[in-house]
Amino acid sequence: MQFKVPQFIDIEDKVFGPLTFKQFAYLAGGAGFGYLAFRFLPILVALIIGPAIVAFAVALAFLKFNDKPFIHVVEAFIKFYSRSRLYLWHKQERASVPQRPSLSDSVNATLQNGRGTLTESKLKTLSWSLDVIDPKK
Fold first, then answer.
1. Is the pTM here over 0.85, yes or no?
2. Taking the CA of residue 76 as centre, how many other CA atoms within 13 Å lie in the half-sphere pointing to its CB?
3. Which residues touch 28 (CB under 8 Å, ≥6 apart)?
4. Confidence at residue 113, expressed as pLDDT on a 0 to 100 scale
5. How far apart are the first and last CA of the chain?
6. Which pLDDT value is given to residue 100?
7. In this model, does residue 122 exceed pLDDT 80?
8. Smallest Cα–Cα separation from 22: which of 58, 61, 72, 63?
9. pLDDT digits (tens, 9 = 90+) for 57-77
10. Contacts of 36 (CB under 8 A, 6+ apart)
11. Where in the chain are the domains?
């Protein structure tokens, strides 16, 4: 039995000609507010506010930043400027970390334990410690 798997689920349906419902709503709202600005405000104020409202509506409908709709940018802008930005830093004391023995300490300990003579097993231990212990730490 075969099932049809929906394709392109992230693309909105075109409802009003080449426009999605959201785009149509943004454009209709912008045109409505633009009309109200010219109808009820003085002409000088309406000439400033009306085109700004219409341009904002067109940006909401068609503009994208990083493949995300412009409404996401507006939302991030509002959240950023509405939240408090007081950052306080308090220094926290860290628990002391035990120091690793340095390379010279391990070599001196190896030589002192063997009273200055190196046997084959001590030589392998010394060689291993030279390979494993990083002298920079």
1. no
2. 7
3. none
4. 58
5. 64
6. 62
7. no
8. 61
9. 999 999 999 989 999 999 999
10. none
11. 14-82, 103-132
